[in-house]
Design brief:
single chain; about 240 residues; alpha/beta; Rossmann fold; eight-stranded mixed sheet; 6 helices; globular
């Protein structure tokens, strides 16, 4: 009985830690933080009380992050030493990857994820949330009606990044989006995460930021691939 009580207490403590408000040492490292999606993720994390370190390229436009009171780490995600340096001497409770390849080739996605996974393991960071795309990897087979066209190679590379994360042994969650509402579209508050990988819908970046925070606080979010859906927003019927 004593052993059972000890195990139950340990389980309750772990779950409570995930559900409780952010503590002062619950830092989150966000890759792609200066982008349209990444900046919304940062805003949501800051509003929830998480200390944030934004990983940005040297010379990148930080205007979307102005006035948020966050820390910065600079570097190139394709350079392993730069990614490792972002973890050095800091404590993070989680990493969020909301990056995009920019001018780099499609190899950006698996290479960058490989560097993140290696650095996270070395530093003891407990979990990674990856913002990906509907149609990544084998998921593309579920959407024969969608005109992915030139995006096919990019989605294959994103699928490889997902595979690296799943096989890393680290706790993770993958949040895929289908069609993003125009930048600056206010959150509807109606978006949710669905385990149904056959769904592709429109979602706002602001709602993706909120869903990121909710996923961080919910142990049940981990170890799964989610599709972000918002039935309150218009979506082309031909893609359904």
């Amino acid at each position: 009985m004593k052993l059972l009580r000890t195990l139950l207490l340990a389980t309750w403590t772990a779950v409570a830690a995930l559900a409780s408000p952010a503590r002062a040492d619950d830092g989150v490292l966000v890759f792609g933080a200066s982008g349209q999606l990444g900046s919304e993720v940062v805003r949501a994390l800051v509003a929830a009380g998480y200390p944030v370190t934004a990983f940005v390229r040297p010379g990148s436009d930080r205007s979307r992050l102005a006035g948020l009171g966050i820390d910065f780490a600079t570097g190139d995600m394709l350079v392993a030493d730069d990614v490792r340096a972002a973890f050095a001497g800091r404590h993070y409770t989680a990493v969020v990857d909301a990056s995009a390849r920019g001018r780099a080739g499609n190899e950006f996605y698996p290479v960058a994820m490989g560097h993140i996974v290696a650095a996270a393991k070395a530093s003891g960071t407990p979990r990674i949330i990856l913002h990906g795309s509907v149609g990544a990897g084998d998921n593309i087979r579920l959407f024969p009606q969608a005109p992915f066209g030139p995006m096919t190679a990019t989605l294959a590379a994103k699928g490889e990044a997902e595979r690296l994360l799943r096989e890393s042994g680290l706790p993770y969650a993958i949040i895929r989006n289908g069609i993003l509402a125009p930048a600056g579209t206010p959150a509807t508050g109606q978006a949710k995460l669905s385990p149904d990988e056959r769904l592709m819908r429109t979602v706002t970046r602001a709602d993706l930021g909120r869903l990121t925070v909710e996923c961080l606080r919910d142990a049940g979010c981990l170890g799964k691939t989610w599709h972000a859906v918002d039935e309150s927003l218009p979506f082309p019927e031909r893609y359904r």
